[in-house]
């Protein structure tokens, strides 16, 4: 019996519910016994529901705090790098020098262009959305590697994790180069992770150099997107994983969930919105539209389900944004000027202030990626590249402990039992 209990009283029936204390965050009321008493809980959108125990990431949305394995995101962004963070997410600790070198060498060994994925991609339309293509390529990895996957084996789970982290930038590059009709460059595992990604995507030739400021910005974008506890795509990966599904297929499910504009697709939607607004004098009209309760339009890149204070990733991203715009000397770009003006107006507007709607990480990542000259339809693919490490760490955490298949209940409001009427009698 838990030390503390909550009492639920329904029609005179008192039910004791254990109260669980996490290391950080809200106490959790364990409602698992309710079904035996003939009740379910109703929580559309999982506003108050914890679906699992996890030791990977903690967010305090009111205070604007994000910790990975206890380390604040600001410190990681300042002092660490994306690959070291992937190690931390997977193994729960920061690596020492030897461990990190060994880890990077294992990633390098899995960094190759798989011609089977290139061939598959060539059968897809050139104008296909790259998110659909990357989802297909990772789905195809489930077919390619299925026979060697044993999710009960920790060594095999580790191998899957390393391979996914190594291969996801390559899937992104295969998708992009196919869309512009250019052949893949050979992999060059000697480059840093983010540098290699930019090289595979955008270099004209094998020996073309990559701008170090842009490589640093890309590394930071990956780092800031690496994990974000039980968001929609991560929950999708866990739900698929809970059926003992193939891990590559579970990650492909996460990619599908991330694509939507309410989630990872927001960075692309930010740019589409800015293009739609078109000029500085129209911003006021769009803000008024967003405030109109009868209009479904929302300012893309504003608001967050969990952060009801500033998104700490957005603060770091804003700094990176300044660095990149400085380096490229393009602060006068009209789209970027509009983004700045929109940010200012919305931050001062009572509607946004009252609802605690701040720019989220995707508002700034959209602007940086646009400034770096990255095609808009690749924005969410870049999010996928960073988030794959978080998804696979969460999947490993799920399957390495006892777990149940994820199976929510529902509150049925349809017709009650009725008799079938033959068609001629209706
Ligand atoms: N523009 C205008 N109004 C907004 C916005 C917005 N971007 N976001 C929320 N609101 C308003 C809502 O209309 C609602 O107003 P009301 O109280 O008068 O009804 C209030 O703020 C609360 O909004 P909810 O929908 O309850 O907030 P929820 O937590 O469910 O949604 C979400 C969060 C989906 C992110 C929402 O803010 C949104 O759609 N933002 C734009 C899309 C976006 O940027 N998504 C990226 C999220 S970050 C990520 O996935 C990495």
In summary, what is this structure?
The protein is mainly alpha-helical and 426 residues long. It is built from 17 helices and six strands. 51% of the residues lie in helices and 6% in strands.
Structural description of this entry:
The protein has 426 residues and is mainly alpha-helical. The protein is built from 17 helices and 6 strands. The strands form 2 sheets. Strands 1-2-3 form a 3-stranded antiparallel beta sheet, with no helix packed on it. Strands 4-5-6 form a 3-stranded antiparallel beta sheet. The longest helix has 26 residues, at 154-179. The radius of gyration is 23 Å and the shape is globular. The termini are far apart. The mean pLDDT is 94. Residues 262-264, 266, 290, 293, 298-305, 355, 357, 360-362 line the site of acetyl coenzyme *A.
SSE order and pairing:
Layout lengths: L3 E7 L2 E8 L7 E2 L27 E4 L4 E4 L2 E2 H7 L2 H10 L5 H13 L5 H8 L7 H16 L8 H26 L13 H10 L9 H14 L6 H10 L5 H12 L7 H12 L5 H9 L20 H17 L5 H15 L1 H5 L6 H11 L7 H21 L27
Antiparallel strand pairs: 1-2, 2-3, 4-5, 5-6
Helix pairs in contact: 2-8, 2-17, 3-6, 4-6, 5-6, 5-10, 6-7, 6-17, 7-8, 8-13, 8-17, 9-10, 9-17, 10-17, 11-16, 13-16
Bound molecules: acetyl coenzyme *A (ACO).
Acetyl coenzyme *A binds next to helix 16.
Radius of gyration (Å): 23 Å
User: What is the 3D form?
Assistant: globular
- The N- and C-terminal alpha carbons lie at a distance of 57 Å
Bound molecules: acetyl coenzyme *A
Major sheet, described briefly?
3 strands, antiparallel
Low-confidence stretches: none
Mean pLDDT, nearest integer? 94
In percent, how helical is the residue content?
A: 40-55%
Order of helices and strands: EEEEEEHHHHHHHHHHHHHHHHH
Number of strands: 6
Strand content: 5-15%
Class by SSE composition: mainly alpha
Oligomer: single chain
């Amino acid at each position: 019996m838990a030390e503390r209990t909550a009492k639920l009283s329904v029609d005179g029936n008192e039910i004791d519910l254990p109260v669980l204390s996490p290391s950080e965050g809200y106490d959790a009321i364990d409602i698992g016994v309710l079904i035996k008493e003939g009740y379910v809980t109703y929580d559309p959108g999982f506003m108050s529901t914890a679906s699992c125990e996890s030791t990977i990431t903690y967010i305090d949305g009111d205070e604007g705090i994000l910790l990975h394995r206890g380390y604040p995101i600001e410190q990681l962004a300042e002092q660490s790098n994306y690959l070291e963070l992937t190690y931390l997410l997977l193994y729960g600790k920061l690596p020492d020098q030897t461990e990190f070198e060994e880890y990077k060498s294992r990633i390098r060994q899995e960094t190759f262009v798989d011609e089977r994925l290139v061939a598959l991609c060539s059968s897809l339309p050139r104008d296909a959305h790259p998110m659909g293509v990357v989802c297909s390529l990772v789905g195809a990895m489930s077919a390619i590697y299925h026979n060697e996957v044993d999710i009960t084996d920790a060594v095999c789970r580790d191998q899957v994790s390393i391979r996914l982290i190594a291969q996801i930038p390559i899937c992104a590059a295969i998708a992009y180069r196919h869309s512009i009709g250019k052949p893949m460059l050979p992999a060059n595992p000697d480059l840093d992770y983010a540098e290699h990604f930019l090289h595979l995507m955008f270099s004209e030739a094998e020996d073309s150099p990559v701008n170090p400021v842009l490589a640093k910005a890309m590394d930071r974008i990956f780092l800031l997107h690496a994990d974000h506890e039980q968001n929609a795509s991560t929950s999708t990966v866990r739900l698929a994983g809970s059926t003992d599904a193939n891990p590559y297929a579970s990650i492909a499910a996460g990619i599908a969930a991330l694509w939507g504009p309410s989630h990872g697709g927001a960075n692309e939607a930010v740019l589409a919105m800015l293009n739609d607004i078109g000029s500085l004098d129209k911003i006021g009209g769009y803000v008024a539209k967003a405030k109109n309760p009868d209009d479904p339009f929302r300012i893309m890149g504003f608001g967050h389900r969990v952060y009801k204070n500033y998104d700490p990733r957005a603060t770091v991203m804003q700094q990176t944004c300044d660095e990149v715009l400085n380096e490229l000397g393009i602060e006068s770009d009209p789209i970027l000027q509009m983004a700045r003006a929109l940010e200012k107006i919305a931050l001062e507007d009572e509607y946004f202030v009252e609802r605690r709607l701040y720019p989220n990480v995707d508002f700034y990542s959209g602007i940086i990626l646009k400034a770096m000259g990255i095609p808009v339809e690749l924005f969410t693919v870049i999010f996928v590249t960073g988030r794959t490490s978080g998804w696979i760490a969460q999947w490993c955490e799920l399957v390495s402990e006892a777990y149940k298949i994820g199976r929510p209940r529902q509150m049925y409001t349809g017709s009650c039992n009725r008799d079938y009427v033959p068609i001629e009698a209706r």
